[in-house]
Automatic annotation (TrEMBL):
Residues 252-387 form the Acyl-CoA dehydrogenase C-terminal domain. Residues 25-132 form the Acyl-CoA dehydrogenase/oxidase N-terminal domain. InterPro entries: Acyl-CoA_DH_C (IPR013107), Acyl-CoA_Oxase/DH_mid-dom_sf (IPR046373), AcylCo_DH-like_C (IPR036250), AcylCoA_DH/ox_N (IPR013786), AcylCoA_DH/ox_N_sf (IPR037069), AcylCoA_DH/oxidase_NM_dom_sf (IPR009100). Keywords: Monooxygenase, Oxidoreductase. GO terms for molecular function: monooxygenase activity. It comes from the Bacteria. This is Monooxygenase.
Length: 412
């Protein structure tokens, strides 16, 4: 069997996501996420400083059932909804932004089964991911297009390099998108799923950045990697429902920026309540009773609550649109993408602001390395630079003023 033989009609006649999450589902998985977050928060700072590949953290996610949260129940998964997944990411981010990112990317990468694979091939992939307990990493950074996919007999050869390949250091499999050079599908983009230990794949452990240190976002080098028919996931197309992957990951970003903000607020609250004295000019007995500090915390809390209300609404809208599967229209897709861009803008700004200004109420002693309050700022500051938020503002403004949508990409 050749790669070409496996490429059937790529029209997504169905995706395995239907309806909206029930309150029972949301409560069940929020509880699971809180338990996992409770474990992660205990040594988040220590693990961050060690800057090691997060194999143990992935196993924690696996044992909690979170890796298969979005896998259809008929294939052994939880059969949950994206609203639930976004909530899980948000909860984990309050404890450990790196692991929240890792899980968010996993959900997006794994869902390539629904968005790229032809309907008749999806069952095989869902079964394999459940049976293998796979965490899905990726190697699709679109601003680093240095992969060469060339036809060779009944398969392909892959060469080149990719930076910022989240999850690649610990994922059982890695999704790659590459432009075909030559052959029947010349000029088209194919998605493949590669095992982490495939011959010719070099994992370069060079992720040494300000924050998100445990996201396993290494560089990858491909040295004449052979791709077979069974590695093919499908075509990357501009079908509206399949392109919802991009708004999906942007909404995941908004949720883990929100989660980081909530985590910083909670940690700041603990520090503030633990201070038994007050500023020497204050009329209050303690810092937490001082109206100046109450005002600052109240402002940050209110802005965070507003972002939460927006992201929660959009999680439900995302599920509702996915339920239409192949009937999703481009205008519907564009409208939701802009709403999610709005959430990306405010979650970025609020996340960075909260993680920064929480120091105003916790004081100079909270900057001690042993306190670790800087972890929230380092994480949100690092990832919020993923794609310039100013371009999201332009995306929103162009749509509002002129009804114009940005060109399709892995950012819009």
């Amino acid at each position: 069997m050749t790669v070409q033989d496996t490429v059937q009609d790529t029209g997504l006649r169905r995706v395995p996501y239907y309806g909206n999450a029930s309150e029972t589902e949301l409560e069940q998985w929020r509880e699971v996420a809180q338990q996992v977050a409770g474990t992660l928060v205990q040594d988040a700072l220590e693990r961050d400083r060690k800057n090691q590949q997060p194999f143990a953290e992935v196993q924690l996610l696996r044992e909690a059932g979170l890796l298969n949260l979005l896998v259809p129940a008929e294939f052994g998964g939880a059969g949950a909804h994206w609203e639930t997944a976004f909530d899980v990411v948000r909860i984990l981010a309050a404890a450990d932004g790196s692991i929240a990112q890792l899980l968010a990317y996993h959900y997006i990468n794994q869902s390539g089964i629904a968005f790229y694979a032809p309907a008749e091939a999806q069952g095989k992939w869902w079964q394999r991911t459940v049976e293998g307990g796979w965490l899905w990493g990726d190697s699709v950074n679109p601003v680093d297009p240095d992969l060469t996919l060339s036809v060779e007999g009944d398969g392909y050869r892959l060469n080149g390099a990719k930076r910022f390949s989240t999850g690649s250091g610990v994922g059982e499999v890695i999704v790659i998108n590459a432009l075909v050079q030559g052959g029947e599908y010349d000029g088209q983009i194919l998605a493949f799923v590669l095992p982490r230990d495939i011959e010719g794949l070099e994992i370069v452990e060079d992720w040494d950045y300000l924050g998100q240190r445990l996201s396993a976002s290494n560089s990858l080098k491909y040295h004449n990697v052979r791709l077979e028919a069974e590695d093919l996931l499908g075509f990357v197309t501009d079908e509206p429902v399949s392109t919802l992957l991009t708004p999906g990951i942007q909404l995941a970003f908004a949720n883990f920026y929100l989660g980081i903000a909530e985590g910083a607020l909670e940690r700041g609250k603990q520090i503030l309540l633990g201070r038994k004295n007050a500023w020497l000019f204050s009329q209050a007995d303690t810092y937490s009773q001082d109206p100046i500090f109450q005002r600052t915390v109240g402002e940050l809390k209110a802005r965070t609550a507003a972002v939460a209300a927006l992201t929660e609404k959009l999680g439900r809208k995302f599920d509702a649109l996915l339920s239409k599967a192949g009937d999703v229209t481009q205008p519907e897709r564009a409208a939701l993408a802009v709403e999610i861009a709005e959430a990306k803008v405010v979650s970025t700004e609020v996340g960075v602001e909260v993680a920064n200004r929480i120091f105003e109420v916790t004081g100079s002693s909270s900057t001690a390395s042993s306190v670790g309050l800087d972890l929230y700022w380092r994480n949100v500051r690092t990832h919020s630079l993923h794609d310039p938020v100013d371009y999201k503002k332009i995306e929103v403004g162009a749509y509002f003023l002129r009804g114009e949508s940005q060109p399709l990409s892995l950012y819009t």
